[in-house]
Amino acid sequence: MVVESYLPFVIDEAKSLRQGKKTLQLYRPGAWAPVNLDHPATFNTLAMDLELKKKILDDLDRFVRRKEYYTRVGKAWKRGYLLYGPPGTGKSSLVAAMAYYLNFDIYDLELSGIRSNEELNVTLSGLLNFIDGLWSSCDDERIIVFTMNHIEKLDLALLRPGRMDLHAPTSYCTPCGFKLLASNYLEINHHELFDQIESEIATTRVTPAEVAEQLMQSDKPEVALRDMVSFLANHKRKENEEKVHRSQLVEENGGSQEEESRECELIEE
Length: 269
What we know:
Blueprint: H1 2-21, E1 25-27, E2 35-36, H2 50-64, H3 67-73, E3 78-84, H4 91-102, E4 106-107, H5 117-120, H6 124-137, E5 142-148, H7 156-159, E6 166-169, H8 175-186, H9 194-202, H10 208-215, H11 221-252, H12 257-268
Parallel strand pairs: 1-4, 3-5, 3-6
Antiparallel strand pairs: 1-2
Helix pairs in contact: 8-9, 8-10, 9-11, 11-12
């Protein structure tokens, strides 16, 4: 009775206590020497879509409590996440928030700096083998998170469940995201300029990182928010100028509206 019920309880409690006192570590290739994870992001501070945030939190909670379920159905107790969106939209912050939420260390492998297949033999087949090998070599209760700017560049073989189970798009800043950032950085929840700023943000492609940087320019909310209004106006003006310029280039080259759209996509990439 003691061995079957009480001893496992004591082991689980000891593990929980160790986890509670644990300082999270960040490991990078090379010597894989760890450093303390000092990233400040948590789910409470992330300026992201509230429904997406809830979806990820619910998925993480469901994952960590289903060890017996994974064993029963014959699946490895692991889960893959794909975070994709433009630079500055919070992918790295979301990874840190997930690590803090689960009390997991992070092993960071950067593939974007690889200049040729020969450096790591990263063909599509090689990458698939690498990912599958990573899964099989890890212990239980592991999460692998892929981050990238353009999901359309990924082969479908990489996107399937079992490799990347949950796909989470990170977006440009939204009115809701702005209000959270204003609360975090300026410690205010209401201001007469909020409506104007939220209206501008809804139609401007500005990242949460850009908004956060702008809010840090002054400790005085009135000054920071008026500067934000000017920043958004300038940002939108530049966007419109770029659209006009691209349109003129297409017309000069005798292109169609469809070609203009493709040209815009290439410039954005």
